[in-house]
Design goal:
Length: 232
């Protein structure tokens, strides 16, 4: 049986359309790609990072934070605020924190307003791999441009991030960016804006936190003996 040339072309056109539709349906979701890159980072055998924050009220703006995380989840943090430095080790629900010259368990360090604020911050802390997965789930959508993924946060997501350390928030909004290199999360950026009320004080928030990741697979976390006693 001889096929009509016109029918053949129509069949080819229909088949091509089906292939294109199928490809679009099964294309990877950028959110899933970011989450996969974050998981791959978490499984890479340890990594180091540094987070710097710009903008906003200097009194409430987090200082530079440097950290290391081991493959088993043991995390070291070094947080700088002006001339003050706070160090901490976190593992699951347990933690040891050093302010001044003394290591304390999280339960012992939570005395007073400053101590309670510090302990709440440490208990809510997420390392970069965990934070990336959390942030990706709080976006309206993510768009991919080569190795950069970006998108706006939902209002609920932005409000939750603003109030994670306490207080009330309004007019909350924000955006995120993720950089992925060789399938691994290598950098992230979080912008947050809004109004907060903390202990009766009204605060305008407009800050950008940038996290850069390095030493993937080679980072080791060593815990001093005094800190080990507080972690056990």
């Amino acid at each position: 049986m001889r096929l009509n040339k016109g029918n053949v072309m129509k069949q080819q056109l229909v088949f091509g359309t089906i292939v294109m539709v199928a490809a679009s349906l099964f294309a990877a979701d950028p959110k899933d790609e970011v989450k996969a890159a974050a998981k791959k980072l978490a499984d890479a055998g340890g990594y180091s990072w540094k987070t710097t924050t710009e903008g906003g009220n200097a009194r409430f703006r987090p200082g530079p934070t440097e950290g290391k995380v081991a493959k088993d989840g043991l995390t070291y943090l070094s947080i700088t605020r002006g001339e003050n430095k706070t160090e901490a080790f976190l593992k699951g629900e347990k933690g040891a924190v050093k302010t001044g010259d003394e290591w304390k368990s999280l339960s012992d360090a939570g005395e007073g307003d400053r101590g309670a604020f510090l302990v709440r911050m440490l208990k809510n802390f997420k390392n970069p791999a965990e934070q990336a997965q959390d942030l990706a789930s709080k976006t309206k959508e993510l768009k991919k441009d080569e190795d950069v993924y970006s998108g706006d946060l939902t209002e609920e997501g932005a409000k939750e991030l603003l109030t994670r350390r306490g207080g009330e928030a309004s007019e909350a909004k924000g955006s995120v960016k993720f950089w992925i290199k060789n399938g691994l999360l290598s950098k992230s950026e979080l912008k947050l804006q809004g109004k907060m009320t903390v202990n009766g004080n009204d605060i305008e928030v407009d800050r950008t936190a940038t996290t850069e990741i390095d030493k993937v697979g080679s980072t080791k976390v060593e815990v001093p003996d005094e800190a080990k006693k507080k972690l056990s």
